[in-house]
Design brief:
This protein is an alpha/beta fold. The chain is built from 20 helices and 14 strands. The longest helix has 18 residues. It binds flavin mononucleotide (FMN) and iron/sulfur cluster.
Length: about 500
């Protein structure tokens, strides 16, 4: 992962643990009713986290149930289930909602969260669409199989060598030559997109409108999102979060890098058009009592990408559409991803934008804690100034009660998202609410978990995954890592360590 050149180590921020009485009066633990009528028991929110536990077919497994059951034991106000694909296409061990056969397993998941939280936690599914991305190829394979040899390649070769005979070279000759020549020549002959395909792995963009399936995204996506949302509703969830954030299709429509010329790109009004149309299709497909919100970026954090000013505009427009909540994230884009190893796909959290999405304890002087809340608060202020009361979820380096309570009181957000702190200690919200804050196991913001995600391995936390092995909990890596945090015994602080 990209890191700032400064190497300042930030210890955990000071914590002020409330007593149970103080917690009862805290803003964090006051209920909130969304426009859909859904009542959240408090302002605590677990943002989506992909744990790599679904089956290869995208189905809910016992490990998926175990992962969410463990979060439910901490009784957060809302729990958003990981990014779940809206299409019925193979996508490895990521959950899917692109066909009726997924409904039964998703139903067990919704039931599990309700039962294990004592009916307290509201549970939503994050719905995702993503475009095709290939693994970085072996250069020889790229030149032999993937490169489409064109007249322009031949012309470039003729030009580079001052030898017109290249204009008539066979495809095999061009492939063989490029596969064995020096880097400078390759850079001269290939287009920037072909070089990217060679160096990073080919990646589709929403601007590739020469491809029919990309051109038709505005026609297809509203229906696909709507059908998936209807399945999630039938499975018994409280709502969906439309994934308009990070490196994926909908975020790329919102991004300032979207230069489509078909009315769905260019000016920010046009970039917001498909996200609006998707929302309308989803809203029309589900009951009024079903919650529909979205997650989008307060800043792309890539050159030429969307800024906080754009995000303020999008916040207002999405609130105007009637979204039940707006959840904000930051960065996590492909444009600045670092080069993957041969055979691996680029991962959108390896560049600077990835650092802003999941900031770590070692970095620049600003540190990771609530790092992007100021930008997210600007989006909330813009939404309020436009006359909308839509609740806003803020996230990124929030891992203490003191931070959460202070930002709510300052009006920077309405709901507090904490992903990694909840992974480090799934019971932490509950401990704080019950006046047992001293028993919280605190996240070190090391990103060991995120590195596992990058390698598509089951995600765990380094603070507990080697603890009490052999107590019957499910494990991976030949029993070397447990899949869920050890249970909490009230009165006994949760340990960090082996
Ligand atoms: C292992 C892991 C998986 C994640 N998966 C998702 C995801 O599926 N969808 C999403 O919007 N964000 C995802 N995120 C980002 C988090 O939701 C959150 O925005 C980010 O970790 C910053 O919040 P935090 O500082 O509280 O962890 C993931 C984060 C982690 C650590
Ligand atoms: S591995 Fe655990 S301690 Fe490290 S960032 Fe992830 S949740 Fe926090």
């Amino acid at each position: 992962m990209w890191r700032p050149s400064e190497r300042v180590r930030h210890g955990p921020p000071p914590e002020l643990y409330p007593t149970a009485d103080e917690a009862r009066a805290a803003w964090l633990f006051q209920p909130l009713v969304l426009a859909s009528g859904l009542r959240l028991p408090d302002r605590t929110w677990v943002p989506a986290m992909v744990p790599w536990r679904a089956s290869e077919e995208g189905l809910v497994t016992p490990a998926v149930l175990g992962w969410y059951a463990r979060f439910a034991e901490g009784q957060p106000g809302a729990l958003v289930v990981e990014a779940t694909g809206i299409r019925d296409v193979p996508s490895g061990p990521l959950l899917r909602a692109g066909h009726e056969r997924f409904v039964e397993g998703l139903g067990r998941l919704a039931d599990t969260v309700r039962a294990r939280s004592g009916g307290r936690t509201r549970v939503l599914v994050q719905l995702l669409d993503f475009l095709r991305i290939r693994r970085r190829p072996e250069p020889s394979r790229y030149f032999q199989e993937f490169l489409e040899v064109t007249k322009q390649h031949r012309r470039n070769l003729a030009d580079a060598y001052g030898d017109a005979r290249w204009e008539d070279a066979t495809e095999g000759e061009v492939r063989a030559f490029l596969g064995n020549t020096d880097r400078r020549t390759v850079e001269y002959v290939l287009t920037p997109r072909e070089l990217e395909a060679l160096d990073q792995g080919a990646r589709e963009r929403v601007t590739d409108t020469q491809l029919p399936w990309i051109r038709e995204l505005p026609l297809r996506l509203p229906g696909l999102f709507a059908e998936a949302a209807r399945r999630v509703e039938r499975a018994g969830f409280d709502g969906v979060e439309l994934h308009y954030a990070h490196a994926y299709t909908m975020s790329s429509f919102l991004s300032a890098l979207n230069t489509r010329e078909d009315g769905y790109g260019g000016e920010r009004e046009a970039r917001a058009r498909l996200p609006r149309e998707v929302y309308r299709a989803v809203r029309a497909a589900v009951g009024r009592g079903f919650t529909v919100g979205c997650r989008f970026l307060c800043d792309d954090v890539v050159e030429g990408g969307t800024t906080v000013e754009d995000a303020c505009f999008f916040g207002v427009e999405l609130a105007r559409e009637g979204m039940d909540f707006l959840s904000l994230s930051t960065g996590g884009r492909f444009e600045d991803a670092s080069q993957p190893r041969v055979g691996e796909a680029a991962y959108p959290y390896t560049g600077r934008s990835g650092f802003e999405c999941m900031p770590t304890a070692v970095g620049d002087a600003r540190g990771p804690y609530g790092r992007n809340v100021a930008k997210q608060a600007r989006v909330r202020r813009a939404v309020r100034a436009a006359g909308f009361e839509t609740p806003v979820v803020v996230a990124g380096g929030i891992g203490t009660y003191a931070q959460a309570e202070a930002l709510l009181r300052r009006g920077e957000g309405d709901l507090v998202g904490a992903a990694r702190q909840t992974l480090a200690d799934p019971d932490w919200w509950r401990k704080v609410r019950e006046g047992r804050g001293r028993e919280v196991r605190r996240c070190g913001y090391t990103n060991y978990c995120e590195a596992l995600d990058q390698r598509h391995r089951p995600v765990t936390c380094q603070l507990w995954d080697r603890q009490d092995l052999g107590d019957g909990a499910p494990t991976v890596d030949d029993g070397r890592r447990r899949l869920v945090a050890p249970g909490w015994v009230p009165g006994v602080p949760s340990r960090a360590g082996r």
